[in-house]
Amino acid sequence: MLADLLKSNDKIFKLVCGAGNECVQDVERLTYLYSKAGAQFFDICAKPEILKAAKDGINKSGIANDRYICVSVGMRGDPHIFKANINDELCTECGACEKVCMQEAIKDNKINSEKCIGCARCKNVCPNDAIYMTEHDIDLKKVLPELIKMGIDCIELHATSIDDEDVKEKWDIINNLYDGIVSICIDRLNLGNRQVLDRLTDMLSARAPYTTIIQADGIPMSGADDEYKTTLQAVAMAEIIQDAKLPVYILISGGTNSKTATLANLCNIKYNGVAIGSYARKIVKQYVNDADFYEPKVFDKALSVAKNLVESIG
């Protein structure tokens, strides 16, 4: 049970496949690889076909009884539910967007929406404002019952929006539909420290103690580099949650990498685990995209890389 894992002294490694990652092949291969490497917890987008892919990957690893899946949902204004689009009339085919896309979702000036995770790196480097983002919200009342029926271990709400009513509406839906462990992913992109704590206090009033994970997000989708500076805000956010003494479990996220646990320990942060997305996917991308991924000559190299990262959080 996920609750037992959270209560233990073990540090949890959570692989974030990407809340907007809708690529079945990527998710199946990532969950298979990182399950083999020792990851216990997997974060995926809230789509039945992606949940099936994650389950298939974990089952192939042969360690399914000790592995847990969390589905992530966002809200209006949350970058995790955005997708990039290209205005062909403005595009000059300079290739700048393709170079910065961590997901390799852009090729020949076309965007593969299944791979796009809404990070907006492409939009930020476009010299002609040819890239724009569109929001893809989902109806939780329609989607969650099917996912719950298929079997999940956690639901995570990205509660970063300034829209308090939308947060409350989606939080109420989750609590009414699901009685398992839930997670709140929150950062300071739009909220100050006091607003973060006020929102969490309000949300936690509907929960029993220690039935909730707070995923303390530094800078979402920013962990492409393996530097202490990259993970600094993630550790700082965890400290804010820790100092508030809330009855929750803390996972550090948002800019996380192999340096996160070291920095958190130096700062005396009492965390339950680390959720790593961008960096975890980046370091194995060349292997996951290889047509011979499952062949030992490719997979063994990928497994060595993934194991080193998983073991860094201990």
Description:
The chain is of the alpha/beta class and 314 residues long. It has 2 domains: 2-76 and 138-311, TIM Barrel; 80-135, Alpha-Beta Plaits, CATH 3.30.70.20. Helices cover 41% and strands 18% of the residues. It has helices at 2-7, 24-37, 48-61, 96-100, 121-125, 140-150, 164-177, 193-204, 228-243, 260-266, 278-282, 285-288, 296-311, and strands spanning 12-16, 41-45, 68-73, 82-86, 106-107, 110-111, 131-135, 154-158, 181-186, 212-217, 249-253, 273-276. The strands form 3 sheets. An 8-stranded parallel beta barrel has the order 1-2-3-8-9-10-11-12, surrounded by 5 helices. Strands 4-7 form a two-stranded antiparallel ribbon. A hairpin with a 2-residue loop joins strand 5 (106-107) and strand 6. 48% of the residues are buried. The mean pLDDT is 93.
